[in-house]
Design goal:
This protein has 396 residues and is mainly α. The chain has 16 helices and no strands. The longest helix is centred in the middle third of the chain and has 50 residues. It is globular.
């Protein structure tokens, strides 16, 4: 399973349009608020489909959803390439949002249950950390390749290559095997029953609820900021051909954060707070320089945030005990989407009066606040084997 997962992650993220699609929008005449509105459409699509798709994955087939997801992405990228206009960009983002909603929850649940079936559930953080790191390596490779490809064939060739990568990703998903305790065709586990069970677990279990809320707290802001990294690079004086290389540096940092996940599984609240504090400081200082050299700090920040995101997800998976794993995981995705939309709207509005460098620095503040709150609320650790308050071991 891990090797297939890694292939799926690499092909799904080897998208040559990733480092240049905001530039495609800009070069097609769109303003920053218009680009932001597209990102909001993307986020809203995911928000509306997140939980329903998670319950669908629990009730039916997670594998089927993982096959369909990259096909939707291929359709969206094809539309962008063929018709570079606002309505086509919007339709493409709807397809992209649907793709992410189908994958969110379904992929994590499929992997966790597969490992749990084999008695290796404790390997989840390491496996998913590697998968996300491999996905980011694929993004980084796409950024490195995008520069010469863009110089040679422009947006059209980058778009065709992105479509082909998505089709190959869907082919890999066809080889996945589902392993879980409850059969997807069990009459007692229909769609509505599965949805209710997942909602009930998130509502009634404080441990699940706390772990669920930690996911958007860590992932929403930096997930939104990544969309503006190319514009930040161009603002700092980078040429269109050089932008993918600076974005590549940032994603090298994010990749290293995924690889570090296997070492962070025993972190408690203060350790996790330190991760967010380092990331917040690095993001603010790196962005405010207004110079390409500051991207080293942004790379460090993304490493810390990626590490925190993987560990938060692992914490959530460990606490879910019911059959609606994908549904509960999708609730975390829903909360992330809501926070992302709020952040996108704030960023788009503020971009009318503030440069990207200042906005990136301002968006580092929430991480510092979260780190401070977590550090203040943490209690001294008790010896292993004793009971521990829920908030002591935010990441264990």
């Amino acid at each position: 399973m891990p090797l297939k997962l890694y292939a799926y992650a690499s092909l799904g993220d080897f998208i040559l349009l990733y480092p240049v699609y905001t530039l495609l929008f800009s070069d097609s005449g769109l303003t920053v608020p218009e680009i932001t509105s597209l990102l909001v459409i993307w986020a809203v699509t995911g928000l509306l489909l997140e939980v329903p798709s998670g319950a669908l994955a629990d009730a039916l087939s997670r594998k089927a959803l993982l096959v369909a997801a990259p096909l939707l992405g291929a359709a969206g990228f094809a539309l962008w390439t063929a018709v570079p206009a606002y309505w086509a960009f919007a339709a493409g983002f709807v397809l992209w949002g649907a793709r992410e909603a189908l994958e969110s929850g379904a992929l994590e649940a499929l992997v966790y249950d597969h490992l749990d079936h084999d008695g290796a559930a404790e390997e989840y953080a390491k496996v998913m950390g590697r998968a996300r790191a491999i996905g980011l390596v694929a993004v980084a490779l796409s950024m490195a390749v995008a520069s010469p490809v863009f110089a040679w064939g422009g947006y059209a060739v980058a778009g065709v290559a992105s479509v082909l990568a998505c089709l190959a990703c869907a082919a890999v998903a066809l080889t996945f095997t589902e392993r879980r305790a409850a059969a997807p065709d069990d009459d007692s586990a229909g769609y509505l029953d599965t949805l209710r069970a997942g909602l009930a677990e998130a509502r009634t279990s404080p441990k699940v609820r706390h772990a669920l809320l930690l996911v958007p707290a860590v992932t929403a802001i930096w997930g939104e900021l990544e969309e503006y990294v190319p514009l930040l690079a161009r603002e700092g004086g980078a040429t269109t051909q050089a932008v993918p290389l600076l974005v590549l540096l940032v994603w090298v940092g994010a990749t290293s954060g995924g690889l570090l996940a296997k070492y962070g599984g025993r972190l408690r609240a203060r350790g996790f707070a330190a991760i967010l504090a380092v990331g917040g400081l690095a993001l603010g200082l790196g962005a405010i320089t207004g110079h390409p050299a500051g991207f080293a700090g942004i790379a460090l920040a993304f490493a810390m945030f990626q590490l925190g995101g993987v560990l938060a997800d692992a914490r959530l998976q460990e606490r879910i005990t019911g059959p609606s794993r994908a549904t509960v995981t999708s609730l975390a995705g829903l909360a992330t989407d809501v926070c992302t939309i709020v952040a996108l709207v704030m960023y788009g509005a503020a971009s009318l009066v503030l440069p990207h460098s200042v906005l990136f620095a301002l968006f580092s503040v929430p991480y510092l606040v979260i780190a401070l709150v977590m550090s203040k609320s943490a209690r001294p650790l008790r010896p292993r084997g004793g009971s521990t308050p829920d908030h002591e071991g935010l990441i264990t």
